[in-house]
Amino acid sequence: MQTKDLVALAEEFGNPLYVYDAEKIESQYKRLTNAFSKVEKLRVNYAMKALSTVSVLKLLKNLGSGLDTVSIQEVQLGLHAGFTPDKIIFTPNGVSFEEIEAVAALGVQINIDNLSFLEHFGTKHPTIPVCIRINPHVMAGGNENISVGHIDSKFGISIYQIPHVLRIVENTKMHINGIHMHTGSDILDIEVFLYAAEILFDTAKQFKNLDFLDFGSGFKVPYKKDDIETNIEELGKKLTKRFLAFEKEYGRELTLAFEPGKFLVSEAGYFLAKVNVVKQTTSTVFAGIDSGFNHLIRPMFYGSQHTIENISNPKGKERFYTVVGYICETDTFANNRRIAEIHEGDILCFRNAGAYCFSMASNYNSRLKPAEVLWKNGKGHLIRARETFEDLLQNQIMVDL
Ligand SMILES: *Cc1c(COP(=O)(O)O)cnc(C)c1O
User: Which of 159, 162, 169, 393 is deepest in the core (most CB within 10 A)?
Assistant: First the structure.
């Protein structure tokens, strides 16, 4: 997308505004599937918690994607967007047993990540196939070290507990049809990913009737200049080779699955907000925008660095700014950032606003959530209307006792 397109969209739809570039989502999807084109059965399950707006789900569905979901409501949204149950996988953590049963009853593949539910589910529903989520205890160290023993993670069944899993399977006669891992956003480099994959292969050997191996995600995309990025093409080459060899060894064709969120939608997103005030203090210049962590919380929540551009004055001389929001709490988007000279009324654009931005938005400070626009074929399509005051009152019951 070009700067002038974003400026025009802010004028057409108002601000603050989320914009998603459909072509970028498509090209990322194709990059991933091309990297693994030698795998006969490849499944990409978009991790919809990154951005769950139904028009985006539809776009991914039309590309051939499946869905990775973490709540029954996400499953329902996916079905609403037109995904069939067989294209959805449910990978929750910490949800109730009843919720897992309800999702399984919809015909969606479930993924269980604790021994207690595995035993209970296998006893009650021995004929429903179940995938297990393992914890391979791998994470990337501060540099390129592989450190083993991510023992504190609440996710997955420890690989040291596989003997107990096998005992449960034997006792209940349940069918384990997939092995899953999601090492999270800790995994920065391919060697670490491949190392974790070996652990998954080792685990898989112990189950005889698998249909798929799910390698989760954790693919990195660049957030700032010179940022690290997962080399998907290289990962594709190396993991494909290893996967095909494993299939031979295993003696049965398997589906290779991934569940990327960020990789598919992060770079496609732009968040546009107007500068309300430029405030010079004794130590810095603040640019205060018409938004806050109610709309985009990643910088405050995770310390994420979103590139910020002044699209109203892209050629202006760069100066240092601290970009802050309007929430009555500290809500700093960026500290001492070089941005083209800002005037009150200018529109700032936050890059990488596709993943974990709108989907984490709230109504804090009784503010309204922004509108969302999908950009396709040189045109902006409204996919979510800006909230109105009535939305704030919806479901409230005013009693005057
Ligand atoms: C969040 C999540 C993903 C997606 O992670 P990204 O870093 O956005 O790619 C995939 N799988 C599971 C189980 C998740 O919870």
Answer: 169
Mutate to test the pocket of ligand 1, among 182, 266, 302 (most ligand atoms within 8 A of CB): 182
**Is 328 annotated as catalytic?**
yes
Q: CA 383 to CA 376: how far, in whole Å?
A: 12
Domains of the chain: 22-265 (3.20.20.10), 269-386 (2.40.37.10)
Residue with tokens 């200049």: 225
**If you write DSSP's letter for every residue of 233-298 in order, what string do you get?**
HHHHHHHHHHHHHHHHHHTS--EEEE--SHHHHGGGEEEEEEEEEEEE-SS-EEEEES--TTT--H
Q: Kindly report the protein residue whose alpha carbon is nearest to atom 7 of ligand 1.
A: 218
Residue 20 marked ligand-binding:
no
* 338 CA from centroid of ligand 1 (Å): 31
259 ligand 1 Cβ < 6 A: yes
CA–centroid distance, residue 277 to ligand 1 (Å): 37
Q: What's the pTM value of the predicted model, to 2 decimals?
A: 0.95
Indicate the pairing of strand 17-21 with strand 42-47: unpaired
CA gap 99, 123 in Å, rounded? 17
Block mean pLDDT (10 aa), the chain, length 401: 97 98 98 97 98 98 98 98 98 96 98 97 98 85 46 84 97 98 71 90 97 92 84 94 97 97 97 98 96 97 95 98 96 97 98 98 98 97 98 97 94
